[in-house]
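Worked Example 4.2. Consider the chain below.
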Amino acid sequence: MAIRKNSVFLISIFLLLLLVILGTTYVNVKQRNRDFGNETAKQAPKKKFVCSMHPEVVQNDPGDCPICGMSLIEKIDNDMSNSDSLLNDVVKPVNESVLAAVSTVSPFQADLPVIIEAAGIINYDSRKIRTVSARFGGLVERSFVKYQFQPVRKGQKIYEIYCPDIYTEKWNYIKMIQMYPDQDNLTVEAREWLNLLGLSVGQVDSLKKSVKPNYHLPVYSFEDGYAVSTDFDPEKYFFSNAEYNSGNAVSAVGSLGFNDGITIETGKPLFKMMDIKSLRVDLKVKTEDIWMLKKGQKVIFTVAGSPGQKFEANINQIEPLNGGLFQLVKVFFIDNDGHLIPGGQVQAHILAGNHQSLWLSKTAVINLGQKKSVFAMRDNKFIATTIKTGVRSGEDIEILSGIDQHSKVALNALLLTDSDGFIKTYSP
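Applying the procedure from the previous section yields the following structure tokens:
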């Protein structure tokens, strides 16, 4: 009997322990399910609904668009964080990352000849503009030079004047010749004086045959050129043409103001004569490149409309720095063949000597206007990377920053450029 009682007692204790264990297990499983449900609820994003025609309309519940009345659709956010890394690279926009099998090139250190490009305009050489003044006063009986840019040739009659003042000088010379016909040495100073007054050699010689002078005198041009008014300024005429012509300054056509019947005084400026063969090319060079230039460097330039015809000259003057984006470089040029027209546009290449720097083929560089970029290889893909460039040397361009000598970039950047979009660059 004692043994049976002990067995029952042990069985009872075992069953009690089993019930305790089962109860504890049930409670734990229940709690874990509750916690998992709460965590899942926390992680599950709230649904949002958007209008396909008006994306600015976003609501938390389904419904209709208040603008167009269309049914809202569920908004799906693209999350590529769990995607395969290779697939992530493939599906990226082509303006951020490119996978391609193209030739690559690295920047290289070298001492190369530098070519600086500049644009400019053809101007008149202001050093060769001469002022024609009256050497003696009187009444202009007839003027043969009346219009802006009228061509004048050496020896051409430019005006006739009634001049009582010159009558006395001519009469004194004639009387001296009549008194000493065989002594030319006594009239040398008189001849020189008449030449200074404006009489040509032929006019002075004709006085030897005159019995009595007259009050009328023709005046001839001493040089070739084009006539312009006394207020003509080539600096303003070409560089501020609109403003210049809208004011009181000279226009391209019109009267010189040197008309028949006007009275002039000795020394009065009548008009200006420009030498059309003596020209000046005004080039605008970036201020950051001006330190490489000096007087005497060769300049090769072409004229708009005739890109195949090249002209060579040398730098004559570099304007002092004024803090602007561009500096003015002046190149004087003698155009004996008349190929250049003042006011024409030119493209110039300045040979600025050699320069030691980091260089890269220009085909690897894309010009985006305000910045330049290359496709640099990183992690087996090409990334559009912003760089800073300097001067050019033939087919190579100077690299100032953005990549180094160990970088690998696409040799032909245009092959990797998306023609339908903008390039999104990476700045190192």
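The radius of gyration is 45 Å. Helices lie at 2-43, 85-90, 164-179, 188-197, 201-206, 234-239, 241-246. Compare this with Example 4.1 before moving on.
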